[in-house]
């Protein structure tokens, strides 16, 4: 039997905080996800103009704030003056874009697990992989369960591995190329983090046979989640924290 790496993370993980019920990647979203019983959170981290780690998914500011232009055109202080909540609903007007340190303080105080997606701006892959891994190592030092680093950028993930080799890593893939096990081995990953649409029981079994854990994004139908669990998936990352009970 293959030896699988330790997997201390909950089987259900809230996507970008509370996904759709609150403005994504904000402290309000984490609090709402926690209110629904979730104990693990996935979120996106990129670098500001002055090199600080902060939470944001997109490469531009328009969709989830009242800002405009590239996300890394502003300093952290300038980013935190933007309104990152009103786009979602009036109840969240004035919500700010959190620094990584803010999320570290909240999740550590509540003993929550985290999956940190390294989300570099184009051309800043290695720089972001290094900076985020360095910051995660420092901010979560001594925690009971280490953060899981993930990224679609193999360059960012490779640099993160050089900077903080002890932090566990997962490669994000929207589709599965034939050489996906070799890519995970090359990056020293413990897990495959794939689009749930490209997974089936055989792929999950193959991953486990190759000593990789498997998590996926973002199944939002409870029936689909049940099927994924029946196939042996280790964790699912979902938006629907109100529909899918935390496990």
TrEMBL record:
UniProt domain GP-PDE: residue ranges: 10-247
GO MF assignments: phosphoric diester hydrolase activity
SUPFAM superfamilies per the UniProt record, alphabetical: PLC-like phosphodiesterases (SSF51695)
UniProt-listed GO biological process terms: lipid metabolic process
TM region(s), chain numbering: none
InterPro entries to which the protein is assigned, alphabetical: GP_PDE_dom, PLC-like_Pdiesterase_TIM-brl
Protein name: Glycerophosphodiester phosphodiesterase
Source lineage: Bacteria, Pseudomonadati, Pseudomonadota, Betaproteobacteria, Rhodocyclales
